[in-house]
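quick one, 141 residues, struct below
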Amino acid sequence: MSNKTIFRRLRRIEEKLAPNQENDIVVVWSFGPEDEPHGKYGYRKLHVYTGLKEACTEEEELRYIKQAYEDIPLESRKSVAYWSSFEAFLKHQKCKCPVHRVEGDFGAEEIEDLLKQFDDVLEEAARANIEARTLDILNNE
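---
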């Protein structure tokens, strides 16, 4: 067999096995890092062959959330407060990242205040931890 024939066959095999960029596979999920593009309810898309990550549109998200809500058995919906109605479920599903909080329920100043309170709590916990370790070291000597 000549090299030319081998290369031609190899190209045909590659064409059959290589991913077709026009028919890309898209995976949709509703969790992940906050710095990745995502929609109002946290849904994002990953194009498997291209590696492109993008946010879902609100229409797509509502379709996925509606399907998820309908998949919850009626008996279970009655037992959980935020499953009682689709509106409550939708409100519970809303993305809670800083970007979407600024757009929705909280203003930038409120978020800043919350972050400052969080920093204060962390600093206080760190000081208490250092004091406890210091006492533990002194007691063990």
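The helical segments are 3-17, 58-71, 74-79, 86-93, 98-103, 108-140.
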